[in-house]
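Minimal example, chain plus phosphoenolpyruvate.
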Amino acid sequence: MVKKPFIVGNWKMNLTLSEGVEFAKSLKSKLNRKNETICGICPPFVFLRDICSVLESSGICIAAQNIHSDKNGAYTGEVSAPMIKEIGCTHVLIGHSERRHIFGETDSFINAKIKAALSVNLKPILCVGEKLNEREEGRTEYVIKNQLKEDLKGISADQTKELVIAYEPVWAIGTGRTALPEQANEVHLFIRDFLTNEYSRDIASSMCIQYGGSVKPENARELMAQPAIDGLLVGGASIKLESFLKIIEAASGN
Ligand code: PEP
């Protein structure tokens, strides 16, 4: 099966509502319908409804940057999976390193969020990745394996069809320091082996594993040329339309 590269832009807490809507309109008009990639954006919560209506039927995926694991309740400031689904989102980022390390999210919370997303047919993009000291101490595989084991607890083989995994080394996020393409590929292979052992070879090879961490127009092609990299999760370079389009173009091999 040929997988189309899946390129997603994570805007984090950037842009204004009008800038975001303009971005979405231009992205829709500039993306070649025959594009060889599938692309998506993750705007801040308060832009989602407007952007979902701009991008309706465009084929562009819209992801929330986070959800709570419960459907409703006394969680001031939180947003649930059914709320995000109702306004038209297709995907949700779960376990981004900024959520893990700035907001202290644990693997069991992340696991509950994945289940909450799947229960309303939202596709989770699960982010995993090691910190700099963990890489330097030779613990990258140990850390990734633990994250995957805990985060995917109770997720069935059938549910993996809806799941995307993003390998994002924490030391490469927002630092300008990208993993070498071969370094990233090695971890992607490790993730695929994990999925083969946990599920099956067919499932592992059909799942999309994105790389994220200081992706730019200049390195996108080389990263996507790695055999185990199926897509890109882009932060800083996704909030300027021109650079995001260049990354999409590079990923499509044009
Ligand atoms: C991210 O936020 O997921 C990310 C990869 O950020 P950046 O591209 O800025 O490193």
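The mean pLDDT is 95. Residues 10, 168, 173-174, 212-215, 233-237 surround phosphoenolpyruvate (CB under 6 Å).
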